[in-house]
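Researcher: Before we compare anything, I want clean individual predictions. No alignment, no superposition, just each chain on its own. First chain goes here; please echo the sequence and then give the structure tokens.
Model: Echoing the first chain and its structure:
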Amino acid sequence: MEHEARSSRQLWVEDEKGRRRMPDPVRTAAVRAVLLTSVTLIQAMVAFFAAVSGSWLAFPMLLTSVASTVVATWSVLDVWVTRQVWRQRNGVVSEPSSTARQLRRERRQARKTAQAPEGEPGHGATDIRRTETARLPEAA
């Protein structure tokens, strides 16, 4: 009976995800930063114990610890920069301010009235043909 009760329960219960998965470039940079930081901590511990024991290895390990601290700090900054770049390129929806939207709407309206006079037939969106020499005005 106990065996049947155990088999009726699920072995794996999915929890709802609290956060989305990091993008691949950001995750790669984060893994690299964690590995470099852990190597730096190990080097610092070895340098400390070598200094306590009076070993000749203390000074070279101290120098490499300082250098790897700089590299680990750089890698953590790389995670932040990679995350910001990814967000800027892929993840952020840009919403202009109402002032910019109003100015753009006015410019678009002025362009429409300048391109096609109202009395001319066939100025709908499906009938627009552009020639190779026609250029659109620069958008500011």
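Researcher: Okay. Second chain, same rules.
Model: Second chain and its structure:
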Amino acid sequence: MAKKPRKQQSGGTPATVALASAGTAFTVHSYDHDPSSPSYGEEAAEALGVPPDRVFKTLVADVDGELVVAVVPVAGSLDLKALASAVGGKRAAMADPAAAERTTGYVRGGISPLGQRRRLRTVLDASAGAHPSICVSAGRRGLEVELSPSDLAALTEATLAPIGRS
């Protein structure tokens, strides 16, 4: 019996393993990460030749004491007030980077909304729905995964809301 092409061999990340286990269609894109790059997301968009509004960054925020994942286009920024509102909270602030890394199991610049050590509540910016596919971190700097926004939302049980700012 032939193997499915999306099955991960050794070296897969928790994100790609989660996608393969779910039977989700996806494409992995890799590039040489430059540690001196000021923006992981913009670096990914440029390296992959993908418009920045189709590459989404994964940010971890603290909303009223609860860590929440926000997935927004790299071309913009996160509206913390809108994120808090989307999850029924009052106040949001960016999470402590060490807490984000410890909770998700990923390093900063490589945090994926998929395959996290402890699944966090996730909010996906509504602009994702305007694209047939988007790119998000595959769990390592220099590694992106491309998939449909609806598959990402389903796998992360994400709420869709306008949480990004241009």
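Researcher: What stands out in the second chain?
Model: The longest strand covers residues 56-63. Additionally, The two ends are 48 Å apart (CA to CA).
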